[in-house]
Design a protein that fits this description.
9% helix
Length: 174
């Protein structure tokens, strides 16, 4: 089974808001203690220094991400399954991880020839990542992005690169 874990990114952008911590919850960070050596030449005041320590802002970052898990059955093309899912709406997606076994993969060659290499056999997924984003230009909708994969053969060899064609599951993949 190949399991793909990815997040869907909402298309509307939410600007994070700054929420200052109350003074009683702030803690002095030892590495930020300063000794007065001489006159300070800049206009940086103490209030601005407090903002440099960093604060957690609840629900402001990552709140527009929705996790999904797709199962790709043996014999199906992982690439087409991901692209098909990404076309179900105007959303961007980012593949975080995957596990399972692949039986055939076509990768782009690393040189400038534009050729591809196809590997057949049983390969364990070490890493699968990628992203797809919707684009609109002149009323025409399209999608850009791609995937990269690292695979291990039964004898320990590792192959990988940009996916340029089929990525066929040998077992169910998530």
């Amino acid at each position: 089974m190949i399991m793909l874990l990815f997040v869907e990114v909402a298309s509307n952008k939410v600007k994070p808001k700054h929420v200052p911590l109350p003074a009683e919850k702030r803690q002095e960070v030892p590495s930020l203690k300063r000794r007065k050596i001489g006159p300070v030449e800049n206009s940086f005041n103490l209030e601005n220094k407090d903002n440099l320590r960093g604060e957690w802002t609840p629900y402001s970052v990552g709140s527009n991400f929705t996790p999904h898990i797709i199962t790709v059955n043996a014999g199906e093309d992982v690439t087409m399954k991901v692209i098909s899912f990404s076309q179900q709406g105007p959303r961007a997606l980012c593949i975080l991880s995957a596990n399972g076994v692949i039986k055939s993969v076509t990768l782009r060659q690393p040189d400038s020839s534009g050729g591809t290499l196809t590997y057949e056999g049983l390969f364990e997924i070490l890493s699968l990542s990628g992203s797809f984003t919707p684009n609109e230009s002149g009323g025409t909708r399209s999608r850009s992005g791609g995937m990269s994969v690292s695979l291990a053969s039964p004898d320990g060899r590792v192959v990988g690169g940009g996916v340029a064609g089929l990525l066929v599951a040998a077992s169910p993949v998530q």
